[in-house]
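Continuing the batch. This is chain 6 of the set; chains 1 through 5 are on the previous pages. Same settings as before, nothing changed between runs. Recording input and output for traceability.
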Amino acid sequence: MNRIKLISMLEQFFLEDVGDGDLSATTLFPCDAIGEMRLIAKEAGVFCGKEIIVEGFRLMDPAIQVTCSIEDGEAMSDQQVLATAIGPVRGLLSAERVILNCVQRMSAISTKTARLIERMQPSQTRLCDTRKTAPGLRMLDKYAVRVGGGYNHRTGLYDAVMLKDNHLAYAGSIMAAVAQLRERLGHTVKIEVEIETLEQLMEAIEAAPDIIMFDNRTPAQISEWLPLVPSSIITEASGMITEQTIADYGQTGIDYISVGALTHSVTAADISANLEIRKQGNEK
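Output for chain 6:
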């Protein structure tokens, strides 16, 4: 991840949550109270978010010392201590929720990604994400997918072209849309075309985009149509792909499978923070 961007994101997260100050922590605890906070997994999964923990506590209070006992991408087990932070209690408590929110979400995404890849084995098809990320969290969501063993689709609307129904209806045809884009865009920008019918597939093949996406097609349809696509064009499947069906899609020989559910509807991993007061402190 981009560390500068990460710190900027964490600053915004803390401003949203802490605002002008943590009323609970600053009212109850003296400024010299010292504590030890342990982040503990309450379920098995794939951990993700070490930089969030390290940079988050450091940003809240540079006096906090953080030790992580696990790396991104490693398996975490129930009751495993993931990290320990020692320092001023006020800072520990003020940073706790933002850090947990991020790490719980990122670990859930990595865990789901790894689980879907496991279901696809022994297929060589690559699993990737979509733009269906939480607003403001795209860098974290997509990083978590990579940590889980997946790959990233385009980052946003600005780094690749995907032609959907509305684009094609305005351009008049797949051929016309791809031709216009080839003429107007730089040679480093990839063009992807979404198709749903055999007729669209044949026109897309003639237009020769970089990628053809089979949208909401069954594994049987993809297996039937895939041999028509020249090896120079990358193929992708999306839509109707679940944990129950992904193995069938992987067996079609498609190059990529993109799954929005990796990021748009994950359930946060169960991770908690336990605080132990080491020094009560005397000053208010």
